[in-house]
Every structure is written in C-alpha cells, then in structure tokens.
Amino acid sequence: MELPQMPELMGLSLLLGLLALVATAAVARGWLRAEEETNGRSAGQKANGCPPDKSLKSKKQKLQQRIRKEKPQQHNFTHHLLAAALKSHSGNITCMDFSSNGKYLATCADDRTVRIWSTKDFLQREHRSMRANVELDHAILVRFSPDCRAFIVWLANGDTLRIFKMMKRDDGGYAFTATPEDFPKKHKAPIVNIGIADTGKFIMTASSDTTILIWNLKGQVLSTINTNHMNNTYAAISPCSRFVASCGFTPDVKVWEVCFGKKGDFQEVVRAFELKGHSAAVHFFAFSNDSRRMASVSKDGTWKLWDTDVEYKKQQDPYLLRTGRFEEASTVPCRLALSPDAQVLALASGSSIHLYNTRRGEKEECFEQVHGECVSDLSFDITGRLLASCGDRAVRLFHNTPGYRAVVEEMQALLKRASNESTRQRLQQQLTQAQEALKNLGALKK
Fold it and tell me: Which residue stretches belong to region Disordered (predicted)?
C-alpha cells in the first residue's frame, strides 16, 4: 500500500487541530454563559429580597449545619434568683453531692468524668473544677466520703461501686486514683441510689426491685433488706447515720435502724418506723440535717412534712406536721429536697422547680424550664442559702429566698418572747442579715 506524502499528513494534522480548538472554545463559551446566568439569577434574588436557591449552598455551610445538629446547644436559662450556672461537663449530669465540710460539690455525667467544684467560687464570675476520669465507663451516681478525702460512684455499665481516693497535690489541687478493685456485682435490677453513712461505718446501695444492701467499706455485704414495696423508687441514709429509709409502689416510707456495737462492729438491721398517710405510691422523700424531720411527695398529689424525733422502740409513731398540694405529682414522677432546717421544701417535676414554705404550706417561688431535660437531681447546700439542680450539661444554683423569709418570720416571733438583752441582740442580728439578703435580691416583701 502506498503511504501518503508528507505535505498531505501535515495538512491533515492542522485540520484536526483547528477543529479541536473550535470545539473547546464553544464549550468554554457555553460554560461562561451558564455561570453568568446563574450569578445573575442569584444576584437578582438577593436584590429582590428572595432567598437564594437551596441547591447553591456551599459545602462549608452544609458542614456547619451538620456539626450544629450533632452537638446540641447548651440550654439557656435566666432568672433574677439564679446565682450561678456550672458548665464544664460535655455530657448530661446525672447526680451531684455536697461534701460534709461544705467546701465542694461533686457532679458526675455521661461524659465519663466526675468534677469536683469549689463552693467558694459559686458567686464569682469563674467556677473552678477538678476532673476525675472514669475509665472505660461512666458514673450515674456519686457520693462524698465523710472525711471528704474520697468519693464513690456507681458505674453505669459495670453495675457496681468504684471508690476514688483524693490525694492533695503540692499546688493545692487533687489527684484522683481509683482503688484496684471495684465492689462485687450483687444487684440484679437497676440501681436507684447509693450512700455513705456519716460515721463511715457502712455504705448503702438500693435497686429498683425491692433490694437494699448494707456494705462495709471493703466491699463485703453486711445485710440485705427486702423492702416489700413491690419496687423501690428511692432509698437514702439519714444524716445521723442511724437509719436507712425507702419508698416505692406502696403508699408509705419505711425506715430501718442499722445497729452497731460499742466497738463499732455490725450487729443487725431492725425495722424502726413508717411514715403512713399517703394514699398512693411515694415518689421521693428527704431528711432534714438533724434527721428530726422528713418530707415526702406522693402520686396522690400531696407532699407531707413529718416529725420523726420519736421513741420508736416504745411504739411511738412519727407526727404529721403539714400537708400541701402538688398536683403535678399525680401525673409525673417528682423529686424532693428539704432544706437543712426543714423550713423550705423544693419539688421538681419535669424541668421545673417549685419552692414551698413548710410552716404555712404555701408556694413561694417557681422556676420554669430550668433545664433542657427533666431535673435529674436536686439538693440544698449545707448552709441552706443555695438550691442546686441538674438535668442537662449544667448545674444551676438558686438563691433560697423562701429560706430567708422563714428566718425573718422565726426571728420576729422569737424576739417577742426574748427575755434578756443578749438574746434579743443575737436574734435582731440574724433578722437584719436575712432582711438585707432579701433586699439585695429584690425579694423583700413590703
């Protein structure tokens, strides 16, 4: 076959190159025209006040939206009685506990940490905290030891107790070290509460079936209590460390005495007394600081205040001091906190908190939608001046204005009966301090 001559090959190559150049120019012109039309349409929409087409959002905007959806926003709450909000946790806080010396607040969350807060910073701008990591698990309950040198937690996945020791460092902070072994698994149902006796003699754990276990500090079970509630909703140790109480499906609160010998050896657990008067299941109860008063809230829509300073061994029953209405308790589970002096009762239902004066049974304050979730814990500090609550990633602290008003009422009544000048001066000083606090908070009633 005869090959084409060189000039003919060059001409064919030039022709193909020219055709390719023309095609490329045509494609480029079409792309530019389409881009101009798109930009013009977008500019026209903006000029006319119309939103741009959603399909034209940048990848960066979509990424930012996805990040915002994945990371929930911190719940915002404001109130003129809000003293502070503690916000270092990255997960929802499930439990908190004030130390017996009043210096610290411990909080645990599902972010696998326990944080120890300094109470002296509560009314400052900055709130310091120290972090203890819960390895390979997270804590759902936390309690300080009586000497404030350790705390215990209940592990969500491990279903058992772990003890953390607090070792003071040279810089004034603490190092947290978990003991080598956790307590053995004994409960067969989800836990409802844990506690350490202020005497340091025993630990209590209660589960949602009908079981309460009394342990020594080495993880050995001393006694098992069957509450016969059908199910337990709450249990606690009294501040005096003598009693363990529980409530549940039945309309009463049952109280046992944990007995020890003179040498500190465990002896037995005996039935002490019951709080009888509710007509439906009891949601929650609490002790006053001296264990001489108790409060309870029930599904029957009432709360009750009791005098428990009785000689139960002589068959003396607790006295009912006050009954108040709380209709929310008839439809949803509630939590309760009693101020150290038993003058103020705090009730939480859903994400709202209600404060009652126990002398008159009247509601004095109400905080609506305090947290983004239901209130998971509620407690007064040891002074009774602040009420703490948690239910999302923050602890919120409120000034206890009903407590100050109760002091004003009590001091005014005592002044009328005071017989000597020194007593009158002391009572007048307490009255003035309470009135000044209410005035500074804008809560002084005229």
Answer: 36-71
